[in-house]
Write a structure and sequence with these properties.
Number of strands: 9
Order of helices and strands: EEEEEEEHEE
Length: 138
């Protein structure tokens, strides 16, 4: 079972942004796509380039010469070494999605109080006031 790691405050990764984090010794890139968070291994499966250093882009589709459509703006990460492209939502490569994938990790946004609240109990002692003296029983 995967262990949860607190890696950033929500405001540290603005929409359209990314952040390289470390969890259990793994380098992971966390992306914010308009409020939805996704996490991929920082290692390109082709030659190990740092995906965090890649450009975030979209896809260009064309059904005939001279006409094209730019879609999914900001949802594709391009490896800086050889320009391999990966879908940030799935980790799948654009050229061979069934075989080549950047490893995905689960990511969630959780309330801070839920993460830091715990059964913290300090040891306490009975205190009483007797005339002009405060007396602690230990």
């Amino acid at each position: 079972m995967a262990k949860k790691h607190v890696v950033a405050a929500l405001g540290e990764i603005p929409p359209g942004g990314k952040k390289l984090v470390s969890a259990d010794g793994r380098a992971i890139v966390v992306f914010n796509l308009d409020g939805e968070f996704f996490a991929l291994s920082n290692r390109c499966p082709h030659r190990g380039g740092s995906l965090c250093e890649g450009n975030i882009t979209g896809l260009v589709l064309s059904d005939e010469p001279g006409h094209y459509e730019y879609i999914r703006r900001g949802e594709i990460i391009r490896c800086p070494w050889h320009a391999w492209e990966f879908d940030i939502r799935t980790g799948k490569s654009w050229c061979d999605p069934d075989k080549i994938k950047a490893r995905r990790f689960g990511v969630s946004v959780e309330k801070g109080a839920k993460l830091i609240e715990g059964p913290y109990v300090a040891e306490s002692f009975k205190v009483s006031v007797e005339d002009d003296y405060v007396v602690v029983e230990a």
